[in-house]
Design brief:
25% helix, alpha+beta, single chain, 1 helix
Length: 130
């Protein structure tokens, strides 16, 4: 995500960071609307460190069961730069393109083999190709 850090706070032993999500760069398991979210650290160390008032690109983990975004060992938070955002978007688009091409290939293979999704028989496999 791309987010602006509002504050980093400690409640007892729990360390959290409040961030305003500006952009979701890659979809995830947890619904992340563009609003304020709490990121949960799993230790008392604020790693990666975040500075309030700054924009970051944050690559973290998710707890799907509790619908939480986590900053744990292996998470990355780097100050936002437009060129980083472009690289992430380009990479995500390439990955999506690869997935779509693989799905198309599998579908064409099934058509040529005589079976299609839903059991529909197709006489002319050319209609499935690009």
């Amino acid at each position: 995500i791309r987010a602006r850090v509002k504050e980093v706070r400690t409640r007892g032993l729990e360390l959290t960071a409040a961030v305003e999500v500006k952009e979701v760069l890659k979809s995830s398991l947890v619904n992340i609307p563009r609003e304020t979210h709490t990121l949960f650290y799993t230790s008392s160390c604020p790693c990666p460190p975040l500075t309030p008032g700054k924009d970051y690109i944050i690559l973290g983990y998710e707890n799907e069961e509790r619908s939480r975004l986590l900053l744990i060992e292996g998470s990355v938070a780097q100050k936002w730069k437009d060129r980083i955002g472009k690289k992430v978007k380009t990479s995500a688009a390439r990955q999506t393109g690869v997935v779509n091409r693989m799905q198309d290939f599998k579908l064409r293979s099934k058509v040529l083999a005589g079976s299609t999704p839903g059991g529909v028989e197709v006489q002319d496999p050319v209609i499935w190709t690009r």
